[in-house]
Write a structure and sequence with these properties.
Number of helices: 10
Structural class: alpha/beta
CATH architecture of the largest domain: 3-Layer(aba) Sandwich
CATH superfamily of the largest domain: NAD(P)-binding Rossmann-like Domain
Number of strands: 11
Order of helices and strands: EHEHEHEHHHEHEHEEEEHEH
Strand content: 15-25%
CATH class of the largest domain: Alpha Beta
Largest sheet: 6 strands, parallel
Number of domains: 2
Shape: globular
Distance between the termini: 47 Å
CATH topology of the largest domain: Rossmann fold
């Protein structure tokens, strides 16, 4: 058996195409969505991501507003900046670029984003709605992992699914999404005893622990679908002995490919779908705010 490779770029392109069609329709009836991104300070990685995000938004016809706040802003000042966006009727979605400068509290700032504009889906209101099986803005990476799963055509009802990782932005919400699809879900983490005993039961294995190479061939059941959410840069040596960095996931890809039915690569798997899902969430928020 050799696993099929789940093409995240192709899935993302499909989502963005549908989003672009929705935005075109919204533009004819009212206006296109507006996504506001808050960038505090001058973190180079966050600034680079903001530029990429602006290009992605422009590509689907979405308005993108980058709100820059100084690195030395107080917590009260940062909260006030978000509050202004909450009350701005022209803004449909708000996201906070991370990391934020010390001593600002990113959690508190994210919780200050209005539920209807919380397009990253990390606020308590949206997570609570998700837990209760209600309509919510689902955390983007969890929704992206689910989109990758759905692309395989699998019917999740009754399937044994294992999620490795318990973060608020991926592991826990992904478990809720899988339960909503009628899967039988086990939630594991890095302190789970005999992790392989749990993961080998999985027909669907989703890994979001943030530990490079945590999952290898010994963890995977033949024919399982493996979704690797991990994204880390690690140091490696090329064939000529030169040191460089490369992007890897939580799954040892080469070991899993001969065993699994399907697997996401890193890069090119869940990552691009996450970006597309953010745009989809912002468009959904716009529809709701306009009453469509």
């Amino acid at each position: 058996m050799t696993a099929s490779i789940i093409d995240g770029n192709a899935i993302a392109a499909g989502i963005k195409s549908r989003v672009a069609d929705e935005i075109a329709a919204l533009g004819k009836r009212a206006r296109p969505p507006c996504l506001a991104a808050v960038l505090i300070g001058d973190n180079p990685a966050a600034a680079s991501y903001a530029r990429s995000q602006a290009k992605e938004a422009e590509g689907v016809g979405m308005q993108y507003r980058l709100v820059r706040l100084p690195a030395d802003i107080s917590m009260a000042g940062a909260c006030e900046g978000i509050a202004r966006l909450n009350t701005d009727a022209s803004v449909d979605g708000i996201m906070l670029h991370l990391p934020v400068p010390v001593p600002l509290d990113a959690f508190e700032l994210q919780q200050g984003i209005a539920a209807g504009k919380d397009v990253e889906g990390v606020g308590a209101a949206n997570l609570g709605l998700l837990l209760m099986g209600r309509d919510a803005l689902v955390p983007c990476t969890a929704a992206a992992a689910m989109a990758c799963l759905q692309s395989t055509g699998i019917d999740l009802a009754g399937r044994e699914a294992v999620v490795v990782g318990r973060s608020i932005i991926v592991g826990k919400p992904l478990a809720f999404v899988l339960v909503a699809a009628h899967a039988t879900v086990t939630l594991c983490h890095t302190r789970t005893r005999d992790l392989a005993a749990h993961t080998r039961r999985a027909e669907v294995l989703c890994v979001a622990a943030g530990v490079p190479g945590l999952i290898g061939g010994e963890h995977v059941s033949p024919g399982a679908i493996v979704i690797d959410v991990g994204t880390q840069r690690v140091s490696a040596t090329d064939s000529e002995g030169r040191r460089k960095t490369k992007m890897v996931g939580d799954v040892r890809f080469e070991e899993v490919v001969p065993i699994a039915r399907a697997v996401t690569p890193v890069p090119g798997g869940v990552g691009p779908v996450t970006v597309a899902t953010l745009l989809a969430n912002a468009t959904k928020a716009c529809r709701k705010s306009l009453g469509f």
